[in-house]
Amino acid sequence: MIKREGSFLKVNHMVEVLAEKLNTNDESIFIGEVYIASETEIRAGQIIMTIEGSKGTKDLYSETSGLVFIRVNEGQEVSIGSLLYIVFDNIDEFENYKLLQENKREQNSDVEYNVTEKARKLIAEKKLDVDRIAKFTGKATITSKDVLSFMQRTEHSLIPRKANSARFRYDLERVLVIGGGSAADVLINVISLSSDKLIWVVIDKNNPCSYPEVNTLTMDDEEFLRSFDKESFDSAIISIGDLGIRKKLFELYSSFGISFTNLIHPTALLEKGVNIGKGNFIDAHSRIGVFSIIGNNNWIAAKVNLDHHNALGDSSLLGPGVMTSGLVKIGSGSLVGAGASIIPSVVIGDNCFVPAGSVIVNDIPDGTRMRIKP
Questions:
Q1: Which of 292, 318, 325 is nearest to 303 (CA)?
Q2: Which of 159, 166, 256, 285 is buried most, with the most CB atoms less than 10 Å from its CB?
Q3: Which of 340, 272, 320 shows the shortest CA–CA distance to 330?
Q4: DSSP H/E element including 8
Q5: Are 366 and 352 in contact (CB under 8 A)?
Q6: pLDDT of 101-117, one tens digit each?
Q7: For residue 38, which of 78, 66, 11 has the smallest C-alpha distance?
Q8: pLDDT tens, residue by residue, 289-304
């Protein structure tokens, strides 16, 4: 039933769904995936969206059939009790509701938004519409994080957003993967398992990753670095296994002020006292023993075991299943093949190659490339 009260229309027979706490300490939640387009017909039991709290997620399903009107955006942070969506019995109820909202907006057309100084500068620099940002965030006070979120989700982003791409949250670290192909697939898989990271884009002129929902930027690294927006992402990591190229790219991106992240699989174990640099990848079920030192830009594959008080330099690669004893040192730019074993206190120099399956019992000088036995 629709009743007129004064100059407004009161709409009955509609279901309003509000943001709820997923944890007792939550003051707000994030909107995850939104599965239904606004102003479309739905049936009872159909999934509408996913919400994310500090300790979990929840799928929201429609309790009734009708016409859904979505009031939030993917990636948006909303306060507990905020209106998420409404389900109307029919199109007439929906049209009357819109009329009601238009009347309210006309009465409050002079409302001004609170914008922080940092957000105001960013809005002016990027020539953005503050009304669109306010509508996107649903907040009375707009911060610089809100502006960056808006840019990430609209045409103002450096990289166009694809449908069904990864969700954006303010507290997630947006990671650039340097290099495509199968190695990028490995990194993206670990990022997807991370609780604090989000894949931003892969950059590779020739090789995209295998995930259709992840953007690949097909341009040269130097061209990208000359044109990129520092606010678009937070950190980077290199997927390329060629150690010479890996080192050059790390130095090139670092010279432009790019921050590198450590990407560690959730099943990997770093024992007490481990000291780790930046730009390192540590894959599934690997272990770094107590008081070991890991440099920068290393690739440590799955099921590697570095025992206590080991040291690893920069831009090196340890293949799957490498096992070292205590007090082993491996230099920079060295490759240790899959399944190699190294006895205690051995020193492997810089730019060395250790074949897969080797058992190393003596020190290896810098630049040594061991032969693979027939």
A1: 318
A2: 166
A3: 340
A4: strand 8-11
A5: yes
A6: 666 555 544 455 678 87
A7: 66
A8: 999 999 999 999 999 9
